Amino acid sequence: MDLIPTLHSQEKKAESIMLPAIQAGCAALKAANRPGKVIMFHSALPVAPGPGQLKNREDKKLLNTDKEATLLVPADPIFEKVARECVDAGVGVDLFLFPHAYIDVASVGKIATDTGGVIQRYPMFRADVDGERLIQDLAMHIAEPCVFDAVLRMRTNAGVRPVEFCGSFMMQNATDMEIAVLKPNSCVTIEVKHDDKLSEDFQSYVQVALLYTSMSGVRKLRLHNLALPVSSNLADLYKSCDMDTVVNSLTKSSAKPSSLTTPIRT
């Protein structure tokens, strides 16, 4: 650690790489047969030849056009591929970015959002201005409790079923959410669809099962069971709604397809 500030102080090449460093961290944890977390510090667009090489695709002419959405998705599918490798190994990735120019967060951030990690940005970083905030953020990320290699599934009674999922995770089937690292402030949104007649004489049941590896390496299963009353009276429905949750869910569901289809117009 003491050698890091001077190890490459005489390096002449200014080009940077990113993806191979994350792959190396994931491979090291996988070789040790341990889940974990990789914290990546990066400050420039990875333009050096190799996996994850990117080009500057910033084009202000595309803003507020139908092609703007192309800037909001990864430029190379390899980022999703590496995220899949990390999730399979139970490795989450946190990104600390210090850009002084275009860095293509839509591409490099894919690994963090798919593994349950976070993205912290410090544009035009200055140690005298941003240093204290960086130290506080880093200390929080290192010290916060978390679990690894998590799989979350929702089960419901007949007549209702989960149909939409939103959050930082990956899915290989229609039911299981795979989360490499799960933290106290992690959040997933599941939309449950009512597609059959339900009797108001009976309750509707929801069970959420979470299988995960604790920080001590113990594999655990946590179950949450919920019984909900059934009503056709809209007044009862509105009275029972959690407005913070409803607004949060609507915001996420409206923002999610914007990066894939239509640009957000202001």
Strand order of the largest sheet: 6-4-8-9
Number of helices: 8
Give the low-confidence spans.
Answer: 258-266
For the report, how would you describe the main beta sheet? 4 strands, antiparallel
> Which structural class should the secondary elements be placed in?
alpha/beta
Strand content: 25-35%
Instruction: Please give the radius of gyration in angstroms.
Output: 22 Å
Distance between the termini: 46 Å
Mean pLDDT: 87
N-to-C order of helices and strands: HHEHEHHEHEEEEEEHH
Task: Give a quick set of tags describing it.
266 residues, alpha/beta, 4-stranded antiparallel sheet, 3-stranded parallel sheet, 8 helices, disordered C terminus
Itemize the secondary structure elements and their pairings:
Blueprint (H helix, E strand, L loop, with lengths): L3 H4 L11 H13 L4 E7 L35 H12 L1 E7 L7 H4 L1 H6 L3 E3 L5 H17 L3 E10 L3 E8 L9 E6 L5 E7 L9 E10 L5 E10 L5 H7 L2 H13 L11
Parallel strand pairs: 1-2, 2-3
Antiparallel strand pairs: 4-6, 4-8, 5-7, 8-9
Written description of the protein model:
The chain is built from eight helices and nine strands. Helix 2 packs parallel to helix 3. It has a four-stranded antiparallel sheet with strand order 6-4-8-9. Helix 3 links the parallel strand 1 and strand 2 (91-97). The protein has helices at residues 4-7, 19-31, 78-89, 105-108, 110-115, 127-143, 234-240, 243-255, and strands spanning 36-42, 91-97, 119-121, 147-156, 160-167, 177-182, 188-194, 204-213, 219-228. It has 266 residues and is α/β, with parallel strands linked by helices. The chain starts with a helix and ends in an 11-residue tail after the last helix. The relative contact order is 0.13. It is globular, with a radius of gyration of 22 Å. Helix content is 29%, strand content 26%.
